[in-house]
Protein backbone atom coordinates (compact mmCIF):
# COMPACT_ATOMS: atom_id res chain seq x y z
CA UNK A 1 0.00 0.00 0.00
CA UNK A 2 1.27 3.47 -0.85
CA UNK A 3 0.04 6.80 0.44
CA UNK A 4 0.69 10.24 -0.99
CA UNK A 5 -0.36 13.38 0.87
CA UNK A 6 -0.53 16.93 -0.45
CA UNK A 7 -1.64 20.18 1.16
CA UNK A 8 -5.24 19.78 -0.04
CA UNK A 9 -5.96 16.08 -0.09
CA UNK A 10 -4.58 12.61 0.49
CA UNK A 11 -4.31 9.77 -1.98
CA UNK A 12 -4.24 6.15 -0.92
CA UNK A 13 -4.14 2.83 -2.77
CA UNK A 14 -5.26 -0.11 -0.68
CA UNK A 15 -6.99 -3.50 -0.89
CA UNK A 16 -10.76 -3.83 -0.91
CA UNK A 17 -13.27 -6.65 -1.37
CA UNK A 18 -11.68 -9.90 -2.55
CA UNK A 19 -8.28 -8.25 -2.52
CA UNK A 20 -9.11 -5.86 -5.37
CA UNK A 21 -7.15 -2.61 -5.36
CA UNK A 22 -9.00 0.62 -4.72
CA UNK A 23 -8.09 4.30 -4.56
CA UNK A 24 -9.29 6.51 -1.71
CA UNK A 25 -9.16 10.29 -2.13
CA UNK A 26 -9.66 12.49 0.93
CA UNK A 27 -10.15 16.24 0.86
CA UNK A 28 -9.06 18.44 3.77
CA UNK A 29 -12.64 19.52 4.56
CA UNK A 30 -13.62 15.88 5.13
CA UNK A 31 -15.16 14.71 1.86
CA UNK A 32 -13.86 11.51 0.28
CA UNK A 33 -14.35 9.12 -2.62
CA UNK A 34 -13.46 5.45 -3.07
CA UNK A 35 -12.84 3.99 -6.53
CA UNK A 36 -11.95 0.40 -7.41
CA UNK A 37 -9.28 0.24 -10.10
CA UNK A 38 -11.04 -2.72 -11.70
CA UNK A 39 -13.66 -1.10 -13.90
CA UNK A 40 -13.25 2.33 -12.23
CA UNK A 41 -16.17 1.38 -9.97
CA UNK A 42 -17.06 4.14 -7.48
CA UNK A 43 -18.18 2.49 -4.24
CA UNK A 44 -18.25 5.43 -1.83
CA UNK A 45 -18.77 9.18 -1.99
CA UNK A 46 -18.95 11.00 1.35
CA UNK A 47 -19.47 14.71 1.91
CA UNK A 48 -17.69 16.91 4.45
CA UNK A 49 -20.08 15.66 7.16
CA UNK A 50 -19.05 12.05 6.46
CA UNK A 51 -22.52 11.30 5.07
CA UNK A 52 -22.57 8.59 2.39
CA UNK A 53 -23.98 10.00 -0.85
CA UNK A 54 -24.10 6.71 -2.77
CA UNK A 55 -26.43 3.81 -2.18
CA UNK A 56 -24.44 0.65 -1.46
CA UNK A 57 -26.57 -2.45 -1.13
CA UNK A 58 -25.81 -4.95 1.60
CA UNK A 59 -25.27 -7.26 -1.38
CA UNK A 60 -22.82 -4.88 -3.11
CA UNK A 61 -25.05 -3.20 -5.66
CA UNK A 62 -23.99 0.45 -6.00
CA UNK A 63 -26.00 3.41 -7.25
CA UNK A 64 -26.91 7.04 -6.52
CA UNK A 65 -28.06 7.19 -2.91
CA UNK A 66 -31.34 8.79 -1.87
CA UNK A 67 -31.81 8.29 1.87
CA UNK A 68 -35.53 8.99 2.00
CA UNK A 69 -38.89 7.46 1.28
CA UNK A 70 -39.55 7.55 -2.45
CA UNK A 71 -42.90 8.91 -3.56
CA UNK A 72 -44.77 11.51 -5.54
CA UNK A 73 -43.39 14.40 -3.47
CA UNK A 74 -40.15 13.36 -1.78
CA UNK A 75 -37.94 12.63 -4.81
CA UNK A 76 -38.19 13.77 -8.41
CA UNK A 77 -35.95 14.07 -11.46
CA UNK A 78 -35.81 17.28 -13.51
CA UNK A 79 -34.34 17.72 -16.98
CA UNK A 80 -35.84 14.74 -18.82
CA UNK A 81 -39.32 16.13 -19.46
CA UNK A 82 -40.78 15.76 -23.00
CA UNK A 83 -37.91 13.46 -24.07
CA UNK A 84 -38.29 10.13 -25.83
CA UNK A 85 -37.40 7.03 -23.84
CA UNK A 86 -37.21 3.26 -24.20
CA UNK A 87 -39.18 1.40 -21.53
CA UNK A 88 -37.32 -1.74 -20.45
CA UNK A 89 -40.41 -2.98 -18.61
CA UNK A 90 -42.25 -3.08 -21.97
CA UNK A 91 -39.68 -4.70 -24.28
CA UNK A 92 -37.98 -1.37 -24.96
CA UNK A 93 -40.99 0.20 -26.61
CA UNK A 94 -40.46 3.88 -27.38
CA UNK A 95 -42.53 6.57 -25.66
CA UNK A 96 -42.38 10.31 -24.96
CA UNK A 97 -42.24 11.55 -21.36
CA UNK A 98 -45.40 13.50 -20.57
CA UNK A 99 -44.95 14.69 -16.98
CA UNK A 100 -43.45 17.93 -15.71
CA UNK A 101 -40.94 15.84 -13.76
CA UNK A 102 -40.27 12.16 -13.11
CA UNK A 103 -41.69 10.89 -9.82
CA UNK A 104 -41.82 7.40 -8.34
CA UNK A 105 -44.58 5.15 -7.08
CA UNK A 106 -43.85 1.88 -8.95
CA UNK A 107 -41.06 0.09 -10.84
CA UNK A 108 -39.25 2.23 -13.39
CA UNK A 109 -36.60 1.17 -15.90
CA UNK A 110 -36.31 3.73 -18.69
CA UNK A 111 -33.59 4.81 -21.11
CA UNK A 112 -34.01 8.50 -21.93
CA UNK A 113 -32.58 9.48 -25.32
CA UNK A 114 -30.64 12.58 -26.39
CA UNK A 115 -30.66 13.99 -22.88
CA UNK A 116 -29.26 17.38 -21.79
CA UNK A 117 -25.80 17.72 -20.27
CA UNK A 118 -27.32 18.42 -16.83
CA UNK A 119 -29.90 16.42 -14.88
CA UNK A 120 -31.14 17.22 -11.37
CA UNK A 121 -32.37 14.72 -8.76
CA UNK A 122 -34.35 16.59 -6.10
CA UNK A 123 -34.59 15.12 -2.61
CA UNK A 124 -37.20 17.07 -0.66
CA UNK A 125 -36.86 15.33 2.70
CA UNK A 126 -33.07 15.82 2.89
CA UNK A 127 -33.33 19.31 1.35
CA UNK A 128 -30.66 18.61 -1.22
CA UNK A 129 -30.35 18.26 -4.98
CA UNK A 130 -27.96 15.96 -6.81
CA UNK A 131 -26.71 17.51 -10.05
CA UNK A 132 -25.39 15.25 -12.81
CA UNK A 133 -23.23 16.93 -15.44
CA UNK A 134 -22.06 14.87 -18.39
CA UNK A 135 -20.30 15.08 -21.74
CA UNK A 136 -20.14 12.42 -24.45
CA UNK A 137 -22.93 10.36 -22.86
CA UNK A 138 -26.14 11.26 -24.71
CA UNK A 139 -28.56 8.95 -22.91
CA UNK A 140 -29.64 8.48 -19.30
CA UNK A 141 -31.03 5.47 -17.43
CA UNK A 142 -33.54 5.97 -14.61
CA UNK A 143 -34.17 2.82 -12.58
CA UNK A 144 -35.77 1.58 -9.39
CA UNK A 145 -36.94 -2.06 -9.12
CA UNK A 146 -39.66 -1.32 -6.53
CA UNK A 147 -40.93 -3.98 -4.17
CA UNK A 148 -41.79 -7.04 -6.28
CA UNK A 149 -38.69 -7.07 -8.47
CA UNK A 150 -36.39 -6.23 -5.56
CA UNK A 151 -37.36 -9.51 -3.92
CA UNK A 152 -36.24 -11.46 -6.99
CA UNK A 153 -32.76 -9.89 -7.23
CA UNK A 154 -29.84 -11.81 -5.76
CA UNK A 155 -27.66 -8.69 -5.37
CA UNK A 156 -30.33 -6.45 -3.83
CA UNK A 157 -32.10 -6.37 -0.45
CA UNK A 158 -35.88 -6.82 -0.34
CA UNK A 159 -36.52 -3.36 1.17
CA UNK A 160 -33.57 -1.46 -0.29
CA UNK A 161 -35.60 -0.05 -3.18
CA UNK A 162 -36.87 2.52 -0.66
CA UNK A 163 -33.35 3.90 -0.23
CA UNK A 164 -32.07 4.29 -3.76
CA UNK A 165 -32.60 5.72 -7.19
CA UNK A 166 -30.36 4.97 -10.15
CA UNK A 167 -29.79 7.84 -12.59
CA UNK A 168 -26.97 6.84 -14.89
CA UNK A 169 -25.44 8.56 -17.92
CA UNK A 170 -24.94 6.20 -20.85
CA UNK A 171 -24.57 5.71 -24.60
CA UNK A 172 -27.20 3.09 -25.43
CA UNK A 173 -29.22 4.10 -28.49
CA UNK A 174 -26.01 4.48 -30.49
CA UNK A 175 -23.41 2.21 -28.86
CA UNK A 176 -19.77 3.18 -29.18
CA UNK A 177 -17.45 0.58 -30.72
CA UNK A 178 -13.71 1.14 -30.51
CA UNK A 179 -11.11 -0.38 -32.75
CA UNK A 180 -7.63 -1.20 -31.38
CA UNK A 181 -5.81 2.03 -30.56
CA UNK A 182 -8.93 4.23 -30.68
CA UNK A 183 -10.04 6.42 -27.79
CA UNK A 184 -13.43 7.55 -26.52
CA UNK A 185 -13.48 10.34 -23.97
CA UNK A 186 -16.45 11.09 -21.75
CA UNK A 187 -16.97 13.16 -18.62
CA UNK A 188 -19.30 12.64 -15.68
CA UNK A 189 -19.57 14.93 -12.65
CA UNK A 190 -21.79 14.43 -9.60
CA UNK A 191 -22.42 17.17 -7.07
CA UNK A 192 -24.87 17.77 -4.23
CA UNK A 193 -26.46 21.15 -3.52
CA UNK A 194 -27.66 21.53 0.12
CA UNK A 195 -31.18 22.64 -0.74
CA UNK A 196 -34.12 21.54 -2.85
CA UNK A 197 -36.78 22.85 -5.18
CA UNK A 198 -39.42 22.41 -2.50
CA UNK A 199 -37.45 24.31 0.11
CA UNK A 200 -37.84 27.43 -2.01
CA UNK A 201 -34.07 27.91 -2.09
CA UNK A 202 -33.27 26.30 -5.42
CA UNK A 203 -34.98 26.50 -8.77
CA UNK A 204 -34.01 23.33 -10.68
CA UNK A 205 -34.26 25.19 -13.98
CA UNK A 206 -31.42 27.45 -12.81
CA UNK A 207 -29.34 24.39 -11.95
CA UNK A 208 -30.02 22.80 -15.32
CA UNK A 209 -29.28 26.03 -17.18
CA UNK A 210 -26.08 26.67 -15.25
CA UNK A 211 -27.27 29.73 -13.34
From TrEMBL:
Q: Which GO terms describe its molecular function?
A: carbohydrate binding; glucose-6-phosphate 1-epimerase activity
Give one Pfam family.
Aldose_epim
Gene3D superfamilies for this protein:
2.70.98.10
| Entry GO CC | cytoplasm
A GO BP annotation: carbohydrate metabolic process
Q: What is this protein called?
A: Glucose-6-phosphate 1-epimerase
Amino acid sequence: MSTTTTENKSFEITKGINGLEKVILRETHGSSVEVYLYGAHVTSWKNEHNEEMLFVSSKYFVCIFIDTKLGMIEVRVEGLETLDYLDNTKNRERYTEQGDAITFESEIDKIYLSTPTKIAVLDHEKKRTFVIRKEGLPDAVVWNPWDKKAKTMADFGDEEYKQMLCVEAAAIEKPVTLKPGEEWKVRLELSAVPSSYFSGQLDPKKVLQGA
